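Quick illustration, no need to memorize.
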Amino acid sequence: MATPENWAQDVITCDVCGMPTQQFCNRCQISLCQGCVDAHKRKFTSKSHDIVPFLDRNTQQVEPRVPSVQRCEVYSENHNKNHWLVIHLPDLHKDQTIMEPIKTHEKQVHKIKKETHEIKFKIIPLYKRAENTVECEIRVVKAGFFHSGIESEKNRQLWHQEVDNIFDKIHIYNRSFKHKKLYALNQSKTSIRNLISEMTKTVEHNEKILSARELSEVNEYESKLKEYRKNPEKDSIIVPSSMAKGKKLRIEMGDFKATLTQSFPSNLRKYDFSTIPTLDPCLDRIKVFASIRSNFKYIYRMASILGGTEAWILGNSNTITRIDLNGSVKDATTCLFWPNDISVTNERELIYSDHDHRRVNIVRHGGIKNLIRPPRGWEPHSLCCSRSGDIFVHMMERSLSNANIRNKIIRYQGEKIRQMIHQDGEGNSILQDGICPIYMTQNNNEDICVSDTNAKSVVVVDKMERVRFRYYGTQPKRREPFSPKGLAADSLCQIIVSDYNNDCLHILNINGQILRCLDDCGLLKPCPVSLDSQGRLWVGLCNSGEIKVIEYLKQA
């Protein structure tokens, strides 16, 4: 019952928001205003709520509050799955449950720390060492393939050189066999012609005897029939063709294998090599075959005639003379101006260069005709006729003050330019700039051999315009600086170079290695050098006008 002291009763408020209450949840035992009923239901959806007016409430004894249901995530290392475990607590309200983790938070933290330590101090250093190892292997592989490439390039050069040597030898053999067989066949031809001429005269003589019927002539007649009945001798033609095993070069890279085999004719013993000239291993019997006095005070250029024992001589005049081994003048050609150089074509025609009129002329049928006109600004000097019929011409280009003179070689096929030789594969000049004239010849392997007097060296260029080597002279027996002048190449592809300052001849092999220095033949200031059909050297002595004919090759 109300008393005066509590006449004004306390207002019952909502347990959620504090507003006056109108409703009551018998399930949860809390007072609710009208606005908080729906929010209360949404918050605790797992329960079934009993919402009644506040005056109809059913109060119960309040049990200890149970924390909200919690979930514990348990990680299974074996199955890599998340599991949820629900634990029922019978001492609490019958519908409430609580989830607790199998492993505590502290254990999980300990596990993370342990894994982090292992990754940081064990696994990462292990992978760094592996990375360093791979980097080292990469450097080793790069270095290995780099050196392999260098070695491969060396092998390329070696193989090319060996192949060139093989075919050089084959070329020498072919030339030697050809000269031998052609010489024998020509001898046989000459012998047959002589016999035919002799038999023709015998027939005419016999017919005269028969027509005259002189008793004495008939009685004195000697028969030659038995001699004539013999079949004419002829040389057999044998061409080497069969090949046999020989020296090998071998290269391997993985499963790739290659072998280069150098082969020689298996039946070489069947041939007589007595006519193949070889350099005497002793070289103590160099013979001066002839000493020829020319009509010149000085000799500058010389060109032997193919297939003969004569040579054209250019000295200190504008007249070019042709002489034989006895010094007899066989022919002479007078030019309008002093020629710079001379050479002889495969048709045995004389050509000479005239730098004043910038042309190369040919002496044909007793007259002089223009053969080659050089490019504008260039003037012709040295000449060389190749075995193929092409003509190599040394050209000079002068500046207005003559301070800078460029040199190059042009190969002509008829009047057309076939090749220009002036730079190597790297763009460097093959010939040194300068005013001094050069000397040229072609070797049997088609190398162009040049005495570059401006550079004081011999430079050899192959047909692809690659410099094979440069020769600067040898130190032994050299009293003065090497001064190369005239040069020639023999049937063995040996290069003979005159050394003006040291009064000698240098004999080089096909690769530029010195074989011999000829200094015991009385050569004083040797300049032009040429070879006749017998392999004899014609050496012009510049300051005396004399020519030495030297036999330096020995018949094996």
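The two ends are 160 Å apart (CA to CA).
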